[in-house]
Design a protein that fits this description.
The protein has ten helices and no strands. The protein has helices at 3-10, 16-36, 40-49, 58-66, 83-95, 100-107, 118-129, 138-145, 149-166, 173-186.
Length: 191
C-alpha cells in the first residue's frame, strides 16, 4: 500500500488534531527507523495506522476484542488501550495487511510488551515523543532516544507507570512486562 493511500484512508477516521498527531508520529518514526536500521516502509505504515481505531464506538471495539484472538482481560482495563489491538485487526480485515511487524507495532503502541521488536519500539516511542507532546519527562526521553532506543523506551514506560500509579489507575500487564524486560537491559543485562 502506498503511504499517500494509507493517509487518505486514515484521515476521515480521526479528528483534525489526531490526524496531525498521526502525521507527526509517522515523521518521527521514520527518522528513528533510519537511525536504528528498521524498515522505513513498515514503520511509516504502522505509524499512519496506529490510531486508526481511536474513535471507533466502544461497543464496536469491544465486539472485535470478544470475537478475536485478543485477550479477554483487555476489556477489564481502560478503553484507551483498546484502539491499538483493534486497529491491528482492522488493517488486516479492511486493507489486507497481514505483516506481523506492522500489526505488532500498531497493537502494542500504547502498552509495549516484553521482547518488543525494534519496529514496535520505534512506533511506541515515536508516539510518546512526537513534537506535539508536552508533559514532564518527554524532553529527557527525546534526548536519550537519539543514542539509545531501549533506554528511551524504558524511560517512557517508567514515566507512564509512575503517572498511572499516581492516578491510582490500573496498569495493563504488558506494560509491566515491557518495563521489566527493558530494566534488565538498563541494568546491564542482555534483553
Amino acid at each position: 500500500m502506498q503511504m499517500e493511500q494509507a493517509v487518505e484512508y486514515v484521515k476521515p477516521h480521526l479528528t483534525k488534531a489526531r490526524f496531525e498527531h498521526t502525521l507527526r508520529v509517522a515523521e518521527t518514526a521514520v527518522d528513528l527507523a533510519e537511525r536504528f536500521g528498521v524498515s522505513r516502509e513498515k514503520v511509516e505504515l504502522a505509524a499512519i495506522f496506529h490510531d486508526y481505531a481511536k474513535y471507533r464506538p466502544l461497543e464496536e471495539m469491544e465486539d472485535y476484542i470478544k470475537k478475536s484472538e485478543l485477550p479477554d482481560n483487555l476489556l477489564t482495563y481502560h478503553h484507551e488501550l483498546w484502539h491499538g489491538p483493534v486497529a491491528a485487526l482492522l488493517i488486516e480485515k479492511e486493507f489486507d495487511i497481514h505483516d506481523a511487524d506492522i500489526k505488532g507495532a500498531i497493537r502494542y503502541h500504547t502498552t509495549g510488551r516484553a521482547n518488543m521488536k525494534d519496529i514496535e519500539k520505534v512506533v511506541f516511542i515515536a508516539d510518546y515523543i512526537e513534537p506535539g507532546r508536552n508533559f514532564p519527562g518527554v524532553e529527557e526521553v527525546r534526548e536519550v532516544v537519539l543514542s539509545d532506543l531501549n533506554l528511551a523506551c524504558w524511560m517512557a514506560l517508567r514515566n507512564t507507570i509512575e503517572f498511572l500509579m499516581k492516578k491510582k489507575a490500573t496498569i495493563y500487564p504488558d506494560t509491566f512486562h515491557a518495563y521489566n524486560d527493558l530494566t534488565r537491559y538498563v541494568n546491564g543485562g542482555n534483553r
